[in-house]
Every structure is written in structure tokens, then in C-alpha cells.
Amino acid sequence: MVMIIVSLGWLTTPALSSLLLRKTGTKEERDTWLVKQLKHLYLPILNFSLHHSRLVIIMAVLFTGGAIVTLPFIGRSFLPEFNEGTLTIGMVLIPGTALEESEKIGLMAETILLEHPAVKSTARRTGRTEMDQHSMGSHAHEIEVQLDPSKISKAEMLEDLRREMSIVPGTVITFGQPISHRIDHMLSGTRANIAVKIFGPDLYKLRSIAEEVKTEM
């Protein structure tokens, strides 16, 4: 069976090649217009480099040294900081706060935000249902803030908002951005802007270390 297949291959391959490849001809290969233009630009550079090899090597060393010098000034974050034009502000009150009182404090926070010239609009969500993936009580708020970045720089705006929101009583407030907030959540498993994770096999030891970290922070 193997001999028959091999024999058929010897017979059919030349026949098929003669049939399918007979129109290819023996035309001389030529460069396309684009390749000609690239060669026209590349050949002078190549000739210069070959005739001035020392200069090329010195320049390469200088550029490499310059790149190494700039390494300490390059950012090391996993992702660059986004400028999304919106903010996601998380605001948490004492658990068990009545809905009416939580609503008053939420309105107070929105009023403070809307007084800032860079804030265009706000939308607030108070609590989440028990069946939600991220269930929250009525003591927790999420405020989406639409910004006008042309009014003020992002750093100055955040500094102003943090200072003005600090007067809201009995709250823990975090500032983030919608996309950055969700990426941080996916990477760290928590919605906090700063998260400290402690790993180990002993639950009681983990709790003890967590209290020490909390105290230090």
C-alpha cells in the first residue's frame, strides 16, 4: 500500500506541476515601486554608515547611555494614569445609618461637588440590592461626576475636591475614575484605591498582622 501511494506521488506531482505551474513562466522578478523608494532612501544611509563606522558607533553609545540615564525617571506603574474626564467617588457612612440621614449626607456631598467650577454634573447611587454582585447597604454611596477639564488641571481639581469634601461628617471618601476604578478592582480584588494583602496559612496570625498593619497606616 505504501509503495502504491509513493508511486502515485511520483506520477501525479510532475503532471500537476506541469498543469498548474506552466503559466508562471520565467519572468524576471522586479521590485515594486514602494521597495524602489525605500531602497533609494536606505542606500545613502547605508553607505554613510559603512564609511563613518566610528561616528555611528559613538552615536549609538551616546544614545544608549542617554536611555540608561533616563531610566530612574520613567514611571513604574502597571498602567499609566488615565484622564477620563469623569470621577467615581465612593462615600461610606457608619453601617446602620438610616436611609433618610444617608440621603441628606449624599445630597450635601453633591451640593459641594456642584459648586466647584470644573464639575458639570453628578449622579449618585445609594446602596445596592442584596442580590447584587457588590451588595452595599444604604450607608454607602457612589457618585459619578462629569468634569470640564478645561477649567483647571486635574491635580488642582482633586486637591480642591478632597479639601472641600473633608467637611462632610462621619464619612470615608475615596476618589477614582470609572475605568481606572474597575481595572484596580480586577487587579487587586478590592475597590479600594490602596489595598494591603497579607497571605499565610494561619488565620489568627493573619488577623494579628492585619491589625498591626492597620495601626501603622
As a percent range, the share of strand residues is: 15-25%
Main beta sheet: 4 strands, antiparallel
- What's the architecture of the domain at 86-178 in CATH terms? 2-Layer Sandwich
Q: How big is the Rg?
A: 33 Å
* Overall number of strands: 4
Structural class: alpha+beta
The helix-strand sequence is HHHEHEEHEHH
Shape: elongated
| CATH top-level class of the domain at 86-178 | Alpha Beta
Oligomer: single chain
Average pLDDT for all residues: 82
Q: By CATH's scheme, which homologous superfamily of the domain at 86-178 applies?
A: Multidrug efflux transporter AcrB pore domain
End-to-end separation in angstroms reads 79 Å
Low-confidence segments, given as residue ranges, are 1-6
List the total number of helices: 7
The CATH topology of the domain at 86-178, please?
A: Alpha-Beta Plaits
In spatial order, strands of the major sheet run 2-3-1-4
What share of residues is helical?
40-55%
What's this model, at a glance?
The chain is α+β, with helices and mostly antiparallel strands.
Task: Summarize the structure in words.
This protein has 217 residues and is α+β, with helices and mostly antiparallel strands. It has a domain at 86-178: Alpha-Beta Plaits (2-Layer Sandwich). It has 7 helices and 4 strands, in the order αααβαββαβαα. It has helices at residues 2-20, 33-51, 53-70, 99-114, 154-165, 178-188, 203-216; strands at 86-92, 119-128, 136-147, 172-176. Strands 2-3-1-4 form a 4-stranded antiparallel beta sheet. A hairpin with a 7-residue loop joins β2 and β3 (136-147). Residues 1-6 have low confidence and may be disordered.
